[in-house]
Amino acid sequence: MATPSTSETWRRGRLEDQAIRAAFERLDTDGNGSLDRKEFAVGMRSLGIPVTDRAVDEVFNSADANSDGVISYAEFVAFAARRTAAMAAVFDQLDTDDSGALDVAELRRGLESLGLKASDADISALLERMDANHDGRITFDEFRDFLMMLPASNVRACFEYWAKSAAIDIGESLSMPDDLDALPRPPWKTLVAGACAGAVSRTATAPADRIKVMLQAGSAGGVPPGGGIRATMTAIYAEGGLRAYWRGNGVNVLKVGPETAARFFFFSQIKALVASDPRNISVAERFTSGALAGVASTVAIYPMEVAKTRLAISKPGSYTGIIDCLAKTFRASGISGVYAGLGPSLVGVVPYVGIDFVTYSYLKELYATRFHDSEPGAAVVLACGMLSSTAGQIAAYPAQVTRTRLQAQGMPGVDAKYSGMLDCGRKIAARHGVTGLYRGLGANLLKGTPSAALSWFVYEQVVRRLDDN
Q: Average pLDDT for residues 94-107, to the nearest whole number?
């Protein structure tokens, strides 16, 4: 006689009250007899599930039948019964030999049937996360307990969430994530794709970037008094024709690789220090790691930033190239010269990262609230990223202006006017008002959208070709 399938068994029966009660009490950390969103999120994180506000809301709202903002024990029992039946149906599709447990071969076939790439190491990581008794097989209880609180309950959704926690390539498009450890492909591919994307997008938007830097530098950049974008464009063209718009772009492109590598490296190292669980980093830990990684990577490649600014605003013939620029700067001002403006650069990291992070999260939440049943596509993610980045740039822009002024002083023909960041900011505001601290912002915003879109496109194309080879 055939053994009843797992789903048939669970449709005829129900979870034992004792098991449900134990699960509920584990989640109810304050012991008040109900679960709030925070307790629910903690429970999801404890299982190693990738936790986002959208995911928490989706599962929580599914369980909160009366929409009162908390989940009672009765609601949890009903939720557990529904999810167990759904998990049983998924389990039966994977358990092809009807043994009541999943082995490596079944896991691999399940992943391959969904077009999900997994190496032997991926499968081992997958088993390790779910195999509670370490016997090399996944029982239904282990499968159910791990996946009970996922936002969706179909086969692909289960494997995708499962795959994310084991770093399996689920075929999703990625822009430039901050965490190499969480990437579904070898780190070198991400670094190569990021460097290519940055080089192409920076070259394409170099004219707008040079205009921005010259406006920030003011008279040191050769901008006519009171001149704006049009006057600066005219001055650049008169200097050397169309080619002059790309002055300083060489160093801007060259620093993409080390800049990206440094940011990833420092993020990975700092995350390991600050995160309680580096494989499932919290929002606060990600923000802290990202900000500190930004500071560290800025310090590491900063001399190249000084060279980029000086090459962009200097008179033709002042420097023969990057090395000549840095050598002359060092001879004239020492180590302080090649690190001029570092203070405002570091000060600007926190507001930029903070505003960018908060705005991006808010926009994603807004989308999730308005469109409950759809995941944001590439266009939505890109738009959220551009808007949040713009907000961050506006918040940190005064620091950028003071940085450029400090980088420029001491160049041939440019006198030293400022004793430091605060003195520079005060003198700019005294002479030009608050708007003086935002000179060049228009040019900076103009290049934002095409730069982000082109970077995204090139990154995707390079990654696709690398993955195919």
A: 84
